[in-house]
Design a protein that fits this description.
This protein is of the alpha+beta class. The protein is built from 4 helices and 4 strands, in the order H-E-H-E-E-H-E-H.
């Protein structure tokens, strides 16, 4: 959202009842198996989804000092409340974390 776009102008986010927020994520186009198809996004074909990875700021509060897993849980709850199929939650897979960071944070 660094481009200054209002959450109310982005349909998957506009249904959330928040004053302000900053999410880390990316816009993707997905095939029937849920695999990202970059060319469809590049050429503006296909349905676009927003994959949210992290909740950095919420209602005037900087959340970066909170543990990542706590921010992700808050993010997951927000996405459930949004009830919009275009807003997706990127789960924090334990196996991925252990592959990248052998020692727990």
């Amino acid at each position: 959202m660094s481009s200054g776009v209002s959450i109310h102008s982005v349909s998957p986010l506009g249904k959330l009842r928040v004053k302000n927020m900053i999410l880390d994520g990316e816009i993707v186009c997905l095939d029937d198996n849920g695999t990202s198809i970059f060319n469809q996004l590049l050429f503006r074909h296909g349905v676009q989804y927003f994959y949210a990875f992290d909740l950095v700021w919420l209602n005037g509060r900087d959340l970066r000092s909170l543990p990542l897993l706590e921010r992700k849980e808050r993010l997951r709850k927000l996405i459930i409340k949004a009830n919009n199929s275009a807003l997706l939650y990127a789960d924090h897979g334990r196996s991925v974390r252990h592959r990248l960071l052998p020692n727990d944070l």
